[in-house]
Amino acid sequence: MLNSTLSRSRSIAVLAALAGLLAACGNSPPPADVADSPTNPVDPVDPNVELCSGTEINPERLFLQQVGADRAIIKWRGNVDGGDEATDVCFGTHMNALPASSLTAANVTETEHREALLTGLTPDTTYYYSVGGAASALQTRHFRTAPVTGESPADGNVRMWVLGDSGTAGSTIDPEGGDARDVRDGYLTWAANNGGEPTDLILMLGDAAYLDGTDAQFQSAVFETYPDILSSAGLWSTIGNHEMGVSGLSTATSTGLYLPAQGQRDPLPASPMPYLNIHTLPTQGENGGEPSNTEQYYSFDYGNVHVVSLDSQVAIRDSGNNETMKQWLINDLSASSNDWTLVIFHHPPYTKGSHDSDSAVLGIDQPIFDIREQYTEIFEDHGVDLAYSGHSHSYERSFYLNGHTGLEASFDPNVHAEHDGAGNPLTGQDDQEYRQISNNSGVDDKVVYTVAGSSGQATSTSDGYPHNAMAYSEIVLGSVVIDATATTLTARFINIDGDVLDFFVINR
Amino acid sequence: MQSARYIILLCVCLCSLPASAGIGLNERLVLLSERIASSPSDPDLYLRRALIYSDTGEFKLAFADLDTASGFGPVENTYFVRGILFYRLGQFDQALPLFDAFIDANPRNPDALIYRARVLRDAGQTKAALADYLAYFALNPQAGPGDYVTAAHLMTVMAERGDAGRSHQDVLEFLDARIRELGAAPQLQRYAIELEQQACRSEQVIERLNQLYPNARRAPQWHLQAAEQYLLLDQKDRTDKALETARALLSQRRPTAIKAELSHRAAFLHAVLEQRVMSTDTFDAVLRRFYPDGLPAGHAGAAQVAHVHSSASGRPAHSHEHSQEHSHATSDSHTHRPDAEPHTHAHDSASIGGFEQPQASTAAYQPEWAGPVAVFVRCYRSAVSAAP
């Protein structure tokens, strides 16, 4: 149903050929991290328009930030061929006719990144770009702007790919990076087998680069693991404990304390916290939402979806900053009237995976309690629909919850979950699909909380696994894809084979 | 002998970690311990591992590492980390002299300054804490909005106590200076709005509401706040228009707890507006009709800072009771949550890693202001009594 009206369907044959070519060149293992193919432009190319005349550069890292309805940032660093770095981009709506008038110079930002801010873009439109300012774009270099706030895209669906704790590739946990790549390929396989709808946004739930979130670790775990998707869909992240430096300590409130455990400081200057240097996240409401004035928490609109990224470690670092973030969240949610609201943060309020939401024996897990006791009520009062976290290396998806702020033993499906009236919590599937406005309460007061922290490793369980508030729990590698139309939200957990292991639906 | 010592230490590190520690934490300790084994006289490695131990609650091991580090370098170098450990344990008296000594030797270290500022703040030493915050901002002007709001809290507390040299105007000037630098800075501007509201300065409230970022007007709260101020200024047409806009926005929202709360507030303001003459008697009748059980305290959205703040921070222990206090103080309309039974936090126990864990204390660094409805009621009565 979601894919029936696609106008951005991918050309499988072309991409398969490209994947084969890349594989043959030794640039990418099959199946390749194949980017989504955009809509063909509808306007004819004007033969009188002067085209760009630069040379395409292949950066060592290339990704998109703040892709909104009328703006986007193309960010890159390095040159894999060893030559000069690109200093500008060209962009346009025709892949092979990028106009000279679009030439946009990049600013040099922290840790020698270069970023080109494109403004004045048309909503819900595919743009092609060339890093280096060539007249034509490579197949993987394009993006689609967001619809205007409150509206669905032309294909009727916003597709979000959610990755949690994915950063094992190249680390001591997984030097070869096979697990993260398998998760990536599982998603791509599922997408290809189900209409090939492109990814609109990528949501990373923290711990994207083990062990310390150094710049070098980001390179292997993020930029070299998802290169083609990152060049064609906006990346939105939330900060995990492994990006905080000094083992993700609460003491890392002062970024100057950043010291990788492996003792290898980033080579480039002024990189106390690489996560913040690498990302260019909205702080001034550039993409909608309440300006946060900090990259550690922020929000944005993508069409009819409002997304909030919180720093779940704020409370443990400093009560003053925590209160400020909490009030900012309330104001942000109060101002949004989008169809769907999604909150991402690293520490899950409920888990029995590799971390236990009943035990704060480790200080590192205190944020679990902080989120559950201080934030879930705000989510539920303000109409949040979904909350996604990582931290535990598992997939654990809750029932449709309200008011469960205690330990697992206090969970009562009759009280805390959407139920059938006989005390049986609804699963969100088939004839038990959820209604955004709860049938039990008559109010939009429930949230599905999901731990999706197995995108790079699937590890252990805690005592009492699975958590009673969960509708589905499994220790298995995978990622989540969320599809949001004007009336229906569908979330699926996809394993490395491209199979759907769990799903649920919320209807408006 | 040395290597045997570190093998034992490594075992202690790993054996002390519960299974739920997560592979990353284990890996980090393994890496650091391996590096210590190969470079046993590098004091920096011990400092870093001590910080990891402090986050796992293993304070005995953390202090042991600091003692070891002291043997391989100037003891002064361990003061900062030792101060952090004591702060996280809530032992401010132990932490402060360590930070003092470190900052004496490193007066331009912003990290140490902000830590000492927080220790002083949580210890109730408002004036000294503010001085450190201001020194920190001078060294690190890009500090987060939460730090600026905290400094504004400290200034406000001093002004309300009548401490020499601080007034509400100082707070507003401090906030405005930062707002001019940042552009849209809603956390700071909303604090300034709250300050003006508490002082019943309606024209200034409206001016500041207008200075918030444009999309702020998408929130019904913005219009309710404006309606309250127009009502206080006896500008009935503008009140009516603001209420109409608030109600229109609310009508487009899904039914949520916050919508119910705001709709009730809008209806109350409309009833007040319906009074032909501003009068205390008629106002009180309306008030009793809409809030028969008393005024709600600490509403979110409008009351930016009208919450009781609790607990020392920067350490891993928060009691459930204090968290509940946070939760209730900042909630909008919930007065009852389905489960509020105390849990057994590991950190609620008497000790962490062998160290006594003090009871969380209520920090007095935030002004205790009333919620928005209570503020409106007070200002309305004041306006009525001042009317000719």
Describe, in plain words, how this protein is organized in 3D.
The complex is a heterodimer of chains A (508) and B (388). Chain A is α/β, with parallel strands linked by helices and 508 residues long. Chain A has 2 domains: 48-144, Purple acid phosphatase-like, N-terminal (Immunoglobulin-like, Sandwich); 159-507, Purple Acid Phosphatase, chain A, domain 2 (4-Layer Sandwich). Helices cover 17% and strands 22% of the residues of chain A. Chain A has helices spanning 12-24, 178-193, 215-223, 227-230, 274-278, 314-317, 319-335, 366-381, 413-416, and strands at 61-65, 71-77, 88-92, 104-105, 107-109, 113-119, 126-131, 142-144, 158-163, 201-204, 234-237, 298-302, 305-309, 340-344, 386-389, 395-401, 434-435, 447-452, 470-474, 478-484, 488-495, 500-507. In chain A, strands 11-10-9-20-21-22-17 form a 7-stranded mixed sheet. In chain A, helix 2 (178-193) links the parallel strand 9 and strand 10 (201-204). Helices cover 63% and strands 1% of the residues of chain B. Chain B is elongated. Residues 1-23 and 299-363 of chain B have low confidence and may be disordered. In chain B, strands 1-2 form a two-stranded antiparallel ribbon. The termini of chain B are far apart. In chain B, 50% of the residues are buried. In chain B, a hairpin with a 2-residue loop joins strand 1 and strand 2 (355-356). The chains are: A alpha/beta (508), B mainly alpha (388). The interface between A and B is large, with 98 and 100 residues.
